[in-house]
Amino acid sequence: MRTRPRGVSGAGAHRLDSNVAGKPEPDLKLKSVDGKDVSLADYKGKVVFVNFWATWCDPCRVEIPWLIAMQNKYGPKGFTVVGIAMD
User: Fold this and answer.
1) Which of 45, 57, 73, 80 has its CA 20 to 30 A from that of 64?
2) DSSP at 12
3) Are 7 and 17 in contact (CB under 8 A)?
4) How far apart are CA 74 and CA 80, in angstroms?
5) Which helix (H) or strand (E) holds 79?
6) How far apart are CA 81 and CA 67, in angstroms?
7) Which residues touch 17 (CB under 8 Å, ≥6 apart)?
8) Rounded to whole angstroms, how far apart are CA atoms 85 and 53?
9) Measured in Å, how far apart are the chain's first and last C-alpha atoms?
10) pLDDT for 23-51, tens place per residue?
11) DSSP secondary structure string, 25-73?
């Protein structure tokens, strides 16, 4: 299953839908790997990169070390990577 970011559609995936651009994202609530409730609202005030990935997706697995490096480098400055496994 391929999920596109909110406001991005079809062949024009590089264009934002003007109806949602600049508006806050809806709250996203999930379970962490250790079973705790996690909400996108928990990251208010931070830059959050939400990454949808799957274990069967080779390009997804390739980018994970890059995302970890980004988190380590920019995390102290308020950047957070939130990975969501689709499988």
Assistant:
1) 45
2) G
3) yes
4) 8
5) strand 79-85
6) 7
7) 7, 8, 9
8) 5
9) 9
10) 777 788 888 889 999 998 898 888 999 99
11) PPP-EEE-TTS-EEEGGGGTTSEEEEEEE-TT-HHHHHHHHHHHHHHHH
- Which residue is it, tokens 């995936």? 13
Rounded-to-10 torsion of CA 11, 15, 17, 22: 150
Question: What is the per-residue pLDDT across 47-77, written as a single tens digit (0 to 9) for each?
Answer: 999 999 999 999 999 999 999 999 999 999 9
Q: How many CB atoms lie within 10 A of CB 48?
A: 16
Quote the CA–CA distance of 22 and 7 in Å, as a whole number: 10
Task: State how far the Cα of 38 lies from the Cα of 70, in Å rounded to an integer.
Answer: 21
- The torsion angles phi and psi of 22, rounded to 5 degrees, stand at 85, -5
Residue 16, pLDDT score: 53
